[in-house]
Write a structure and sequence with these properties.
about 325 residues; alpha/beta; eight-stranded mixed beta sheet; globular
Length: about 325
Amino acid sequence: MQFKMIAALAMFLAGFGSAMAETVFTPDMTVREEIYPYATQTLSDEQFLTGSAGKAEQIGGILRLPQGKGPFPAVVFMHGSSGVGASIDPWTRMLNEKGIATFTIDSLTGRGFKQLGDKQAALGRLNYIVDIYGALDILAHHDTIDPKRIGLLGFSRGGQAALYASMTRFNDLWNTSGARFATYVPFYPNCVSVYKDDEKLEAGPVRIFHGGADDYNEPGVCEAYVERLKKAGADIEMTIYPEGEHGFDVPTLFGKSLQSKTAQTARDCKIEEGENGILMNLETGKPFSYEDECVVLGPHVGGNAAAAEASYAATITHFMNTFGLN
């Protein structure tokens, strides 16, 4: 009996050792995680656009450091309306493997939300930008991060925030970090709003990735904005994957196309900043509201492995070039 127990233990340890040998220190493994609670505000779009104070809040973020010796370049992740999801992990692993730290913001949990898909009005459309600048402040003063090599990558509502976080006006209003992002990379953002001075961007290049089959945030409006920015001299490019739907890079959605029946989309709206920071619906001539007829329900989300792989390669290459890692 004792012999059998010893033999069983030996087999277990052998199997455990074999499993460990398969997983120890692959290049994409995070070597250290640091969790940061930090102060921010919940703001209406009017408050954001006029530089007015909102409600004090505390949210959090996770810094994941790669193997090696710093100071490291870093990329801030800004999630979409659904919160931190399955798209983040592959990005973290790919960037960590290249020696790039990541900082994942959670803008929702600290505010008492799980998701915003069917209640977009619950948080100002621009509020994520304040959270983004707060993350930049943490990283710019971290002893293992290079403050001149910090990039921003956002998805959906977070992609919208990543796009407009590049505006000089918004940096002047809300970015107190003393640093600027080295580059801005929005994935499938909404571009339906026109803001004052939205053609004046910071120096960091902007690279947008969108799906041609996206009916959540249709890419055509972004194309028009990109052309307007190019004429103004901005360093901006947009890549469209024809078969890509909203969320094309999310691994759990590969091969699927799902309708978000209760999700709200402003894809058909025409919104422009008016006096005193009021966002106006140009079709009604009244302040924009998520009760407006242009807001519709039922957009789709879907992953596309080919588009994801292409966007991974293009984005990682862009970060490597921007951070001087090639």
